[in-house]
Amino acid sequence: MSETAQLKIGDKTYDLPVIEGTEGEKAIDISKLRDQSGYVTLDIGYKNTGATKSAITFLDGEVGILKYRGYPIEQLAEKSTFIEVAYLLIYGKLPTTDQLQAFEFEISHHTLVHEDMKKFFDGFPSGSHPMGQLSSLIGALAAFNPSSLKQGLSAEEINIEIIKLIAKMSTIVSWIYKKSLGHPVIYPRNKYDYVTNFMHMTFGQRTEDVEIDPVVVSAMNKLLILHADHEQNCSTSTVRIVGSSDANLYASISAGISALWGPLHGGANQAVVEMLQKIKEDGGDVDKWVAKAKDKNDPFRLMGFGHRVYKNFDPRAKIIKKACDDILEKLGINDETLEIAKKLEEVALSDPYFVERKLYPNVDFYSGIIYTALGFPTEMFTVLFALGRLPGWIAQWKEMKANKEPIGRPRQIYVGETNKDYTDIKTR
Ligand code: CMC
């Protein structure tokens, strides 16, 4: 018999169904509570609210487990490629050789971006933040693809938009970087795999084939895989909620990019490296900065530490820390900020403030150091996070559509003024 929860308000008792997920997670279904009782639930910041039932990503923050479609992140980061993981997230299964080849073929044949899109770059002020550019350019893709605006697109039509978006995002990201340098953009080459093509457009030249170090391609694949999905985080919830109004795919993803930008979310990777540089310039006294982070009168927080869901460790951070050591060694780079990061981690992990609050390094703590080693400037870091998160956003948008989820529209508890009469401006 299925379990029910009972809620007692005054002398009335309400039976609420209990929902259990495939990994044993339990939830109390309150969707009918207001109709039955007149009450809503209040949960500011959705700290204890399940917004959907999803079959894409499972994470257990208490033990530090992350799986995409049932596959542990450790295995995917070690053995798979970003594009294979994208297929897994979006279509639900690991592809066969033929399916993967067809997927890669389709993507590589949609990487060209409409030439008029280049005109946007003339309008952005020089030095404008790449995330502002990215969200505008991805939103603008809807205008360049009017086919995506039709209501009631078939599964096949939706799939074409998905392929186009994955393909064009890498071209747009690399162009944002090239434009930031004042360099000419580099066009995609179909012969390359997705990540090599992206590195070619980012670091390559117009006329020659550049040798992209396989170590770099492998590190990039790993980073993108680790960022590919993370269930109902701020940006993903944004994508789902925007999409729930029947807004097109490009508009929904553009909104997700904006949500990711914040330093409490994806913007943390830029903030971490800026923080490490600041500590270095300040003489490298790690204890002083840990004390600042603990001081409630000081707004400073240790960027790259803490997570809403992980209260043990972030499994992505473990993989990234190792990848960081490997790549710096392979590329022969001696990075002083890495030493500061390690010292900071050591001090923070033994400090009762961080231990009691279960604050561990998160995915962003080490990713910026790898991006720097690969040659990316700090302002590009969150854009790279977005590139990695794209398949997750798409998978979640697609699932929300397939489940025919209703428009996202939370309730509130009004706490403002009541019953005021309008007064003439001269008498106020
Ligand atoms: N440095 C110092 N204190 C912290 C930190 C930190 N980085 N993070 C949390 N705390 C303290 C916080 O002050 C609070 O203390 P108290 O209980 O005494 O008031 C307690 O820990 C709980 O923090 P919270 O802000 O209530 O937790 P939250 O779940 O609302 O926020 C967070 C999670 C990630 C926004 C937060 O830990 C944070 O701001 N971290 C730094 C930014 C960061 O690295 N963000 C990237 C997250 S991972 C990438 C992604 O998936 O987005």
Automatic annotation (TrEMBL):
Pathway: Carbohydrate metabolism; tricarboxylic acid cycle; isocitrate from oxaloacetate: step 1/2. Transmembrane segments: none annotated. InterPro entries: Citrate_synth-like_lrg_a-sub, Citrate_synth-like_sm_a-sub, Citrate_synthase, Citrate_synthase_AS, Citrate_synthase_bac-typ, Citrate_synthase_sf, Citrate_synthase_typ-I. CDD domains: EcCS_like (cd06114). Keywords: Acyltransferase, Transferase, Tricarboxylic acid cycle. It catalyses: oxaloacetate + acetyl-CoA + H2O = citrate + CoA + H(+). The keyword Hydrolase does not apply. Pfam families: Citrate_synt. The active site is at H307, D364. One of its GO terms (cellular component) is cytoplasm. GO terms for biological process: tricarboxylic acid cycle. GO terms for molecular function: citrate synthase activity. Belongs to the citrate synthase family. PANTHER family: CITRATE SYNTHASE. This is Citrate synthase. It comes from Mucilaginibacter phyllosphaerae.
